[in-house]
Amino acid sequence: MPAFEPGNRCVVHIDADAFFASVEQRDNPELKGKPVIIGHDPQSRGVVSTCSYEARAYGVRSAMPVFQAYRLCPNGIFVKPRMKRYQEVSGAMFDIFEKYSPVIEKLSIDEAFIDSTGENGVAMASSIRRHVKQELGITVSAGVSYCKYLAKLASDSCKPDGLKRIAKGEAQGFLDRLPVSCLPGIGPKTQSRLDSLGISTVGALRQMPENWFARVFGKTARRFQNMCNGIDNDPVIPWREVKSISEETTFDKDIADTDSLRGHLAALAQNVAFRLRKAQLKCRTVGVKIRFSDFSTITREHTMPEPVSSDAEIFSQAKTLLEAAVPEKPVRLLGVIAKGLVPKNTRQASLFEPPDVPWDNISQSMDLLRSKYGRPVVFLGASLGSQAGGKTE
Fold first, then answer.
1. What integer pLDDT is reported at residue 348 of this predicted model?
2. Are strands 36-38 and 77-79 parallel, antiparallel or unpaired?
3. 3-state secondary structure of 376
4. CATH number at residue 189
5. pLDDT on residue 303
6. Which end of the chain, N or C, is less surrounded by CB atoms within 10 Å?
7. In this predicted model, what pLDDT tens digit does every residue of 37-58 receive, in sequence order?
8. Are 3 and 121 in a shared domain?
9. Which residues are catalytic?
């Protein structure tokens, strides 16, 4: 897979594989490896909600009448949909997404765009896929690219249980081979019209002149012409108000040394602060989460009179909370959380910074470096000893 390219916008698209069927196979191990069809009785007039990949091998597809699915796959196992159960698993999956980015656009119960600009999108997608499989027992496919529709096309192309990245230099070659129906907004009628004109691939469509696009597509001509050329500036639009942003890490070995804990805390605080600023937010409340070697867990929080978003301010509050907690047992997990989120332009009169320290300017410079290189390159001094330890979740 190509290396991460620094400095580019980055979008991750996550799509669960045969979601409803996968949940049924997970909940009932006897269904694993069998053609599972989510739909009502084959004698009814219902349609297939989705089906396992074993059933798809017979030609069964979503939205197909169930009687037709039965004809194609008479040995298929028809399972009545359990929407409440699917919503529960979906909620847990989106909770995992929110551990990685506050900017998430929900497309459906099992599909989302995640803004990973400033971070290594491939690494984020890999971690999300691993996290979902470990925690929920289902698989997801992921696409990574510099714009939304290419990220989605990438994940579609590597299903099931795959990960694909489309870099800017690869986009045109990838697109040109695809059928025009792959472009968002081209439905059956438009596809039929283009077929009648002898245009069946994106590559062929891209060769058409600008006035032709205007005549065929009208007001949307520029958008379709841009998509043919791998251009799309649509932002990832959060699907709900962000309530909190958190980072936590589980250590390979329990840590009893307070100085070591401060180092890890600084790294976590720096990640939380970066994510706040990326979402153009500040927080009024900073908290820490501590899980001990015996799995007992405590949380401590402090609410400030003015919102903050700089690395130093968030670390200062988190460090005070950690030291006040006086961990007496080895620590297994450590986390930092930012709550009480407000827009970044909320007026700030910081309690922590001296008048001659412009934290916003410093943070902006740090963020530019992180976005350019895809990882933190400027660290809080307290975090330097923690860079090699623990697994961030």
1. 46
2. parallel
3. coil
4. 1.10.150.20
5. 94
6. N
7. 999 888 877 889 999 999 999 9
8. yes
9. 111
* Percent of the chain whose pLDDT exceeds 70: 85
CATH number, position 23 = 3.30.70.270
How far is residue 194's CA from residue 313's CA, in Å, rounded to a whole number? 57
* Helices of type H across the chain: 19-27, 53-56, 66-72, 83-97, 121-136, 148-157, 168-176, 188-196, 202-206, 210-217, 221-228, 258-278, 311-325, 359-373
234 in any annotated domain: no
Cα 224 to Cα 31: distance, rounded to the nearest angstrom: 43
Kindly state whether residues 161 and 202 are assigned to the same domain. no
Do residues 31 and 76 both lie within one domain? yes
The identity of residue 137, as a single letter, is: G
- Number of residues written out for the chain: 393
Owning domain of residue 265: 244-392
Each residue's pLDDT tens digit, 51-110: 999 999 999 999 899 999 999 999 999 999 999 999 999 999 999 998 898 889 999 999
38-57 in b/e form (b: 16+ CB < 10 A) is: bbbebeeebbbbbbbbbbbe
263 plus 386 within the same structural domain: yes
pLDDT (tens digit, 9 = 90+) per residue, 156-170? 999 999 999 999 999
The upper half-sphere exposure of residue 354, i.e. CA atoms within 13 Å in the direction of its Cβ, equals 2
pTM: 0.70
**Domain-embedded: residue 235:** no
| Separation between Cα atoms, residue 280 and residue 372, nearest integer Å | 18
**Judgement on whether residues 207 and 125 belong to the same structural domain of the protein:** no
The 10s digit of each residue's pLDDT in 261-311 is 999 999 999 999 998 988 888 999 999 999 998 888 999 999 998 999 999
Split into its structural domains, the chain has a count of: 3
Examine residue 160 and say whether the peptide bond preceding it is cis (omega within 30 degrees of 0): yes
Query: Same structural domain for residues 283 and 369?
Result: yes
Count the Cβ atoms, other than its own, within 10 Å of residue 243: 10
> How many whole angstroms separate alpha carbon 281 and alpha carbon 43?
54
Q: Are residues 212 and 97 in the same domain?
A: no
The 10 Å Cβ neighbour count of residue 130 is 10
Domain assignment present for 322: yes
